[in-house]
Amino acid sequence: xxxxxxxxxxxxxxxxxxxxxxxxxxxxxxxxxxxxxxxxxxxxxxxxxxxxxxxxxxxxxxxxxxxxxxxxxxxxxxxxxxxxxxxxxxxxxxxxxxxxxxxxxxxxxxxxxxxxxxxxxxxxxxxxxxxxxxxxxxxxxxxxxxxxxxxxxxxxxxxxxxxxxxxxxxxxxxxxxxxxxxxxxxxxxxxxxxxxxxxxxxxxxxxxxxxxxxxxxxxxxxxxxxxxxxxxxxxxxxxxxxxxxxxxxxxxxxxxxxxxxxxxxxxxxxxxxxxxxxxxxxxxxxxxxxxxxxxxxxxxxxxxxxxxxxxxxxxxxxxxxxxxxxxxxxxxxxxxxxxxxxxxxxxxxxxxxxxx
Length: 356
What we know:
This protein has 356 residues and is mainly β. It has one helix and 26 strands.
């Protein structure tokens, strides 16, 4: 089956719970079908078990094109990475260029639907994306801070509003957002400022629009006290202290940073119960994946992979890391079993250029 051009990540939704059926959501930056408007699209594929097999359905025709009813159109251009919030039953979609941010309702009458899409401070419902009245500079990825009802951040109103961190592709920082669950409307926090990152050269910041500055982010602990962030320029991974301070709000302070290989963008965590927890960061320009030990927050290895490493998927049950090589059109399989002689080495590959 085929989705529109410029497809991004694949996000998993569980509309009927973990037992399935499941739904795969794919944002695409541009729909180039004949007659289609030049805007972003979110496509979805429903997956259900069928005995020992699975059935994937997007109303596809004989050429594999997904049907229109499996597409959400009318989004701002340049969709970035889609993040599904299973608890809130919404999804967050920043947009790479400009200053748009879209909130999706996952439980619309006919599938996912636009709850609200804001473009900077314009439109009928203007929103300020930080307490400094700064606009988005190309949103990239979003992460939701875990919320403990026994110790909630003050701005979450007792965990009734999610605290969302969004990286900015062309501004050296992260912006906090939330939404009103009852109204499904995006809100900004007047008392919680944007996080401006350290170790950003002023000359790099002047290159807004020409050079990506930040990439992926993920919380590394269930309490939401530590946030990992990829610096694309200069290449590094940072740890941000998001524990609660004296005011009851997160400290949001960058406390450690490690240089990495060139053009890092995406990261994935491997956190086995009895072994060392690791973070993997794909470095597109160097055909490498950096390995960071979280206990000591040190770079412990660099994996040589194929051209254009991008998406990273950890299969914790099978102790494998899957690396999507965009330029090589392959997927590499990395061994994560510490008892194996092939630990942290590629043990296989699949794809257009693969023979294995």
